[in-house]
């Protein structure tokens, strides 16, 4: 079957799609024709990149509760179950709670405590990160989720390094506030991660002329896939209100929630850094937010340096953008 | 000339190398035969990735002094000149000081204030970041330096976003301590960035059988290139003491300096996050350090999740690594 041919899809998959839709909770399809020329595979790849982000965000929340609050697996399971009743309701949060309650049939210990902390990968998150770099599209949350798996997988090096640097900074934490802040941090980081993923899809759709329906794609992921979540309705809604979304964080659907989340999210990232914890996706989601919403960045210095050593030229803030300038830098 | 052929290099470049060496400060060569099969190009690529990191680290230091301390360009120039007298002495620090003193011939203003904060790139930093991902080698400092350029280049989006989210958190800072801490943060982040770059070179050398002399490569970069710096002697020294360096941060040459830098470095990153500043390389260098030196990471949860939804299996901490396990997860 030729990839991306809508007529063929309709002919062979039309009835199948109808059958599947009949079995989803609200009758919406969980598979659909995406677009021409490899766009379906591309969307599935970005889905997986987002999945890497979701997983790592959750795992960092688990890590922080365990390391800073010294919570038991049962207590953490209750936190995730509680989150699963609210706006974070999703397959991944649900199984995280269940994993924390699972017993090891051999030892009767909690199984999670016997699983080795070395993450493997099949490569789709890596492809997404590479695609972000090649498209010049910043997707740090997903890229750092990939690097987090890489870093976890060199356990022997980490064990050796932990003996060279064995002073773990201690921090004091108010448990109840921390858990509430953490929910804000997880939710806001999730918004940011999806904002990056959908910005990448938007750029790819424009570049390849795919004309992707991003609201439909969000809806498509609501059922049957690993990132399925109530949250995806919100993204669908954002695209219904405005199909030309530049970045999801700017939409009416999300901007107020981000504003509310910010103080707690910042406190969480600060506590993680003060406590010496590796929390790359919680931190880089916030970092992306701070960069994306910053009118000024220090890239003027970068351009000055590049012009100094390589005559790469720069634009000026007081001249039309069409003009590039090279300065005859003085040798001091 | 066939790429990577040592005899040919010696025949054609031998005298040239001798001539060039005669013109460097200490008689050491600034170009040399690297190894077979594209290894020379590879080393140059990683050099450029490191250059992206160095530049972004410096630019974030400028950004923090400007935004949190409200220092004038002249004051910041003096800080960089001062740093250039010490262990940070390097071409890039030197030109940064000079750039801050440069006047715009047209307006007589400081030129830096008229340069647009949109960074361009030629792609070599991006290639390095992609190579890190493909080699499964975490190099977040360099990758985030690339994303920082991408994020800077969408200035119109940033300006629009800054109007939607216009509350900048305020922080109080003790200027003298901050500048001292910042020097620690810049220096430690630089060590981390080079540690990532040299770890990538080590992995590539093993994978391709290049047998790279990494100490010699450090020495080679001491002169004539953009990252030339006194600091590179230290890396050469680390490889002299032990040619099988696993990670530069563990070497006698650097570990004590990192230990000393840590408290100030942490304070800087915390202040940046509290102040809403985008400082991805200072923060991700610290994040890498905290991850690399962490005996335990939450990747056990990642492996449990992957086994739940995809039967991807996991290793156990109480069984030989050669065995993989799949658990029959209970459906709750």
How does the SSE layout of this entry go?
The structure is a homodimer of 332-residue chains.
Chain A: H1 6-22, H2 39-68, H3 73-84, H4 91-101, H5 124-134, H6 140-153, H7 155-164, H8 175-208, H9 214-220, H10 231-241, H11 255-274, H12 280-292, H13 299-310
Helix pairs in contact in A: 2-5, 2-6, 2-8, 3-4, 5-6, 6-12, 8-11, 8-12, 9-10
Could you please describe the fold and organization of this structure?
The structure is a homodimer of 332-residue chains. The first copy, chain A, is mainly α. The first copy, chain A, has two domains: 6-74 and 102-292, N-(1-d-carboxylethyl)-l-norvaline Dehydrogenase, domain 2 (Orthogonal Bundle), CATH 1.10.1040; 305-332, no CATH class. Chain A is built from 13 helices and no strands. The radius of gyration of chain A is 23 Å and the shape is globular. The termini of chain A are far apart. At the A-B interface, helix 2, helix 4, helix 5, helix 6 and helix 7 of A face helix 2, helix 4, helix 5, helix 6 and helix 7 of B.
Compact description:
The structure is a homodimer. With about 325 residues, chain A is mainly α. The first copy, chain A, has helices at about 5-20, 40-70, 75-85, 90-100, 125-135, 140-155, 155-165, 175-210, 215-220, 230-240, 255-275, 280-290, 300-310.
